[in-house]
Amino acid sequence: MSIRFDSVSFTYGETVIFKDLSFCFEQGTTYVLLGESGIGKSTLLSLIKGLQRPQSGTITYQGCSPDNIEVVFQELHLFPWQTVYQVLEMPLLINQTPSESRKKRVTSCLAELGLTQVQDRYPHQLSGGQKQRAAMGRGLITQPDVLLLDEPTASLDQETKANAQAMIAAQQQRRQNSLIVVTHDPEEAVFLGQTILLLKDQDVTPISNPFYGSQLERDSLAFYEVVLQLKEQMREARQ
Ligand SMILES: Nc1ncnc2c1ncn2[C@@H]1O[C@H](COP(=O)(O)OP(=O)(O)OP(=O)(O)O)[C@@H](O)[C@H]1O
């Protein structure tokens, strides 16, 4: 599958967000969309998912369709009346998965995400990290071609954030589908992104991440060297 942007321009009224953006999202790759607040990261997610249409240019889906792209929004959208089990089960009920297979998939996804112990709890009984994992489980359970995560760790404390990032990386390695993560955190970008797309000048600049897949420790100097380089590029993008 691939999602190809050709000369895409998008504006909100007079405000130009993207101008002549061309890029191709490829199968099985993890992308991180990185950029300062208000630059257009969430807008780019909406364009990928087909929730917004560009004023000019084309977006072409090959081997996938917007229906097979799942988005986990920043707000999570967990219903107060649904337990964690029901959150994960809902997409399978909607696509009429038979009951036995539904039960098997929900049980296994709960276990993978470390949610088995809290499967009967409602959102108000969950920690921030557990809520995030439940929302991610809902996105993953139908095994979409592409999963879009909008600032998945923004509201989490430092330790929960590191755990959530490790969980996202592990899930991605297991599934090998395409993952697109929005963040404004350069450390998260270097930890998760195979290709980092720096948003600047109403366009994206792809940066391939030397840390990705290198088996280097996150606490290593090498990791922070890449983070520092990226911070420098972000600074330049602001000027
Ligand atoms: N519906 C809308 N109408 C008009 N302007 C909008 C609309 N949605 C977003 N914008 C503006 O477009 C710009 C890009 O918004 P977007 O939410 O894509 O940025 P972002 O990079 O995701 O920001 P953040 O990191 O703060 O979430 C912002 O300046 C925002 O105020």
From TrEMBL:
InterPro entries: AAA+_ATPase (IPR003593), ABC_SmlMolc_Importer (IPR050093), ABC_transporter-like_ATP-bd (IPR003439), ABC_transporter-like_CS (IPR017871), P-loop_NTPase (IPR027417). One of its GO terms (molecular function) is ATP binding. Residues 3-226 form the ABC transporter domain. Keywords: ATP-binding, Nucleotide-binding, Transport. The keyword Transport applies. PROSITE patterns: ABC_TRANSPORTER_1 (PS00211), ABC_TRANSPORTER_2 (PS50893). It comes from the Bacteria. The keyword Transmembrane helix does not apply. This is ATP-binding cassette domain-containing protein. The lineage of its organism: Bacteria, Bacillati, Bacillota, Bacilli, Lactobacillales.
